[in-house]
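2024-03-11 09:14:02 DEBUG pipeline.ingest accepted 1 chain
2024-03-11 09:14:02 DEBUG pipeline.ingest length=193
2024-03-11 09:14:03 DEBUG pipeline.predict start
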Amino acid sequence: MLVLGISGSPRLNGNTAQSVQRALEVIRGDGLDTEYISLAGKKISFCTGCWACRATHTCVIDDDMGPICEAIRRCDGLLIGSPVYMGLVSGQLKTMMDRTVLFRVGGVFELSGKVGAGIACAGFRNGGQELTLQCIQTYLLQQDMFVIADGPPFSHSGGAVAGLTEQDELGLRTIDNVAHRLAAAVKKLRARG
């Protein structure tokens, strides 16, 4: 059982990277394998809507998306983190999301039945995390995935960090909660076969 964590930040070691890596550490503690991808420095071109992927379920654009798509195909659970940029996900993450349309073309939904969750990091407590998490959840739902939130005692839309990750005790609790719940959901779904 594998959970893939993707940091959608252009910063290699920023709050989003730290948050996703912390969640993956919790998931490893729950007995699952993890893999981590940072979009920082990746060359990912915009989807052009050419629909060449309808025939082959691969993209004709030759860039860093190929290995990312293969990692997403391999995983049982997908954890996506994003900084809040103008109230929404980062441009890098949105571009990556758009390019994964190839998972759902021609009536085939390759990610159907996988589990997903999100983490959002912003400068302030009400800095756009909820809307950013809703964007991530919408993406996961459009891939026909099961979506996990952070659950009790907060039960918001996922992990939500304000300010510096290591200093936000409340945010760290939401990260831990979403990580434990994602791991449990992957285990439960895999046990059902």
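2024-03-11 09:14:41 DEBUG pipeline.report The chain has a mean pLDDT of 96.
2024-03-11 09:14:41 DEBUG pipeline.predict end
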